[in-house]
Design brief:
175 residues; alpha/beta; four-stranded mixed beta sheet
Length: 175
């Protein structure tokens, strides 16, 4: 199973107030996000983190030990967000593209108006907006603030996209 998430902001005390998160402390937020993640993600799963995983200005090994190693998932892909200082010096991509069941998916921390293959109705998954930016076409905010503080599975994304309108730049073929 593939999972998508963004904007966890582990270790970022101020995000609780900035985004009106329902936590009384940083520790409660960190532990709840880890528990929610592990409730749905299995050890053999793949997780795409679309930026702002952790606010800390520390070594990658410290973040891995404190947070990443506690999260279920066989493979974690980390995209650079606006607060991922812990990824400095590491080759973390800003955009990640995959194809699942013939559907092209573009994942980025930032929302885009158009994206790779959007004119063919490809999907775009993004973060950064903390549920405050209305998606257009086949796009969706995969950030925890927009998804009840849980990652979103590829199956959930399929269900969401089924009801989303076509991309504004979709090429309509003549019949």
């Amino acid at each position: 199973m593939i999972w998508f998430t963004a904007d966890e902001h582990y270790g970022h005390r101020n995000i609780i107030d900035f985004c009106n998160r329902p936590y009384k402390s940083l520790e409660e937020m960190n532990e709840t996000l880890i528990a929610n993640h592990n409730e749905v993600v299995k050890d053999e799963d793949i997780v795409i983190h679309a930026g702002d995983f952790c606010m800390w200005r520390t070594k990658r090994e410290t973040v891995q030990k404190k947070f990443v190693m506690r999260l279920n998932g066989e493979h974690h892909v980390f995209l650079k967000g606006s607060h991922d200082y812990w990824l400095r010096g590491w080759e973390a991509p800003q955009i990640y593209e995959i194809t699942q069941k013939r559907m092209h998916i573009v994942v980025c921390h930032y929302c885009m108006r158009v994206w790779a293959r959007s004119h063919y109705n490809s999907w775009h998954l993004y973060g950064h907006s903390h549920g405050k930016l209305e998606p257009i076409g086949k796009s969706w905010d995969i950030g925890v603030d927009n998804n009840n503080y849980y990652p979103v599975s590829i199956d959930q994304v399929r269900m969401i996209m089924k009801d989303r309108p076509d991309n504004p730049n979709l090429i309509k073929r003549r019949k």
